[in-house]
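@channel anyone free to eyeball this complex?
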Amino acid sequence: MATEPKDAPIQDAVDFIHHHREEILEGYFKLLSFPSISADPAYAGDVKKCAEWIVGELKRIGFENAKVIETEGHPVVYADWLHAGDDKPTVLVYDHYDVQPVDPLHLWKSEPFEAEIRDGKLYARGASDNKAGVWGNLKVLESMLSADGKLPLNVKIMFEGEEESGSPSMEPFVAANKELLQADIMLNCDGGFDMHNPQLAYAGRGIISAEVTVKGPRADLHSGGFGGVVRNPLHVAAEIIASLHDEDGRVTLPGYYDRVREIDETERARITAGWEAETEKNKKTAGVDFTWGRSIAPDAERATVLPTLDVNGMWGGYQGPGSKTIIPAEASFKVTMRLVPDQQPPEIAQIFKEYVEGFATDTITIDVLVRQEGWPFLLETDGDYLAAVQAATEATIGKPAQLVRTGGSIPILGMFNRLMDMPITGFGYGDGENIHSPNEYIDVEHFFLALQAGLRMYHNLGAVEK
Amino acid sequence: MATEPKDAPIQDAVDFIHHHREEILEGYFKLLSFPSISADPAYAGDVKKCAEWIVGELKRIGFENAKVIETEGHPVVYADWLHAGDDKPTVLVYDHYDVQPVDPLHLWKSEPFEAEIRDGKLYARGASDNKAGVWGNLKVLESMLSADGKLPLNVKIMFEGEEESGSPSMEPFVAANKELLQADIMLNCDGGFDMHNPQLAYAGRGIISAEVTVKGPRADLHSGGFGGVVRNPLHVAAEIIASLHDEDGRVTLPGYYDRVREIDETERARITAGWEAETEKNKKTAGVDFTWGRSIAPDAERATVLPTLDVNGMWGGYQGPGSKTIIPAEASFKVTMRLVPDQQPPEIAQIFKEYVEGFATDTITIDVLVRQEGWPFLLETDGDYLAAVQAATEATIGKPAQLVRTGGSIPILGMFNRLMDMPITGFGYGDGENIHSPNEYIDVEHFFLALQAGLRMYHNLGAVEK
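replying in thread with the prediction:
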């Protein structure tokens, strides 16, 4: 750290971090000691205690209106510092303080909620995903406030406590607090800070998950006695599934592609570059080539800007050893669809439901349960705010983040896109591994480097002309 | 029993049974005390002890060459009495002395291997299926031998010990013992004696059971990252299944119907009558109407003389609560096909295998495991031997058995049809319920009535001109 080049406007804040390194780690250990597991109701009290502790920290470093806001689920931490002046931008900082469950516990080499540093790595549940972002932002903002007595821009903090369990309360929370949350730019900090191959997911697909149940005879029937005269629900389920794609791999639901947005050459080049950077790694993961659907569009586009439909599970009838001569009474399958702009999840869910229900007959009933509807998201791909974040990354590690379009879904970003009237970009602090797995860790030196990048980022954002 | 009409030629034998009623029940209790569960290797010793005890009984009543013949699985009981003269027919009597497992044991009201009579019903595992046939034949033959010192025809006994576990050793046993087993007529006694609606299944379908495994990526993949570029094994499994029938319900396997035998008007009338007699009961069981495939042929024919294909179970991917966004690494399903004369199971199995394997692609492998190949069977529908059996039934309960063609499979009869050069008909002794279930029983009075029918049957068979 001593070799770090001087950086005049943020030097005092950088020095503050250097001088408080031990306190920063101690505080991080404390934050990581809360078992804020949102998925397990048994930990609801710990989730709340964690929120309250963060509120205390925000107050201590000089934030105002710091409070735990109750929702139907776990609470949101809110706080603001709005004294930079009306000519300065306001940023809404989003992250989450809840964590994944820890099982299988026996695979952890140290207690998941008693952080431990081994070989320069800090091990604890949430160390990387994503208390790193919560703590990173707090420490960056504290160092600026301590060094300068002020921030270079107006800041609103929103840390949720349900991200790892699907954010069920966030949509009503956001809808009810639009004014409180309004800003010029939203900063999603739920991500990592990869020193070597920094990436920023600027777009992702929406998602619909659904479950279909096909029911036929009253009970499992003898296939000898009833074969040929009673329609088999497994056959109907298979027919439905088989009919959902044409032989090239296109989804056949009526109107499925009607609202799919064309991409321009800039976008095409961007996603191609992003895909190619990962192709070898992805092939290793899959163990197969990506030939499926190749006649429709190049691999990079099918994986990102075209919608998909996959059956994630199917079951019905006898699954044990040997054979059992039955016509099963029912069959079920689970589906997820990945949606892209400007497909609308409620519309597609309805199309799916009607299409699938159309396979019902006089002896077959079909139930479709739509479980989740998540919207696609699109963050900034240019503009001053993104440039400010990228410049901070480049100044810190020598290169900006590569903009990648993920085929996956971050429903909460789709929701922010849809409900909030502001652009969104992202910046992450964690550089570690094993998120959602045993022995989650963050690299300690990289975390301190990310704090420097964070300082530069807030500084740069403060310089953006509104 | 005292009101039973006198029946001159068999009267002494009838009297013998009347006078030995208690001994007959005591012996039956003893036979039922052997836990001859063929499916569970833990009972192999008991199966053998049961066989040895029966051999002892056969010797005691005057049979010759009585022996336990070892097979690769459980032993066969063989014995003969061949002193009726060359001008008299020889009958080969087939039945099985093994029984189904007894679980769930807690649902039994008395010990399954300690027979108990309650309200005129004798409860024990095997009481109906099918130690009734083993004991019934022994008692009928004993009474004739005791009363007359001889039998009206030549008799060969073959009781197997593997019927309830699929008779894996019977085909090699029969192939190796054709001369020993040769007779003029084979009598299948593995069935019941329903006093009210006697039925005789004179034909049944063959069966092929198979399991298909469809493999795709190396492991379950994230459906966001790989949706659209990696082919989903569940989709391929569904395509295979969906393609196996046309929209009318015909099986689409190439050549599937090529060898299906046309039926004549007599047969059509017979199966229609048999089907109609059961339709209401069957509809209640199924809970749905039998509309599937109705454009192909009438219900009775689709259920009996046309072949079928049913998927009995399918599974792959995530089956738990909620959703899991994966493309599963593999999918599997189990199939049974019901075959009719003159389809050949090995040929159809090969057609199925090749057809299904044809769905393999550059990223999808397909394995087909053919588990069982059972041949369809056709017993006597006219002729003197059947008439002799029917006359015995009619003389005893006032009507002959209705000839019914079952859609189910009795692979061992198909095997006898194919390997043995003799006609087959059937006669059963049991009149009870809960076969294969807890609290299996036989109605005691009906069993004694069945013994009288058995006496008449052997008498009538002995009168048939060779």
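from a first look: Chain A touches chain B through 81 residues (CB under 8 Å).
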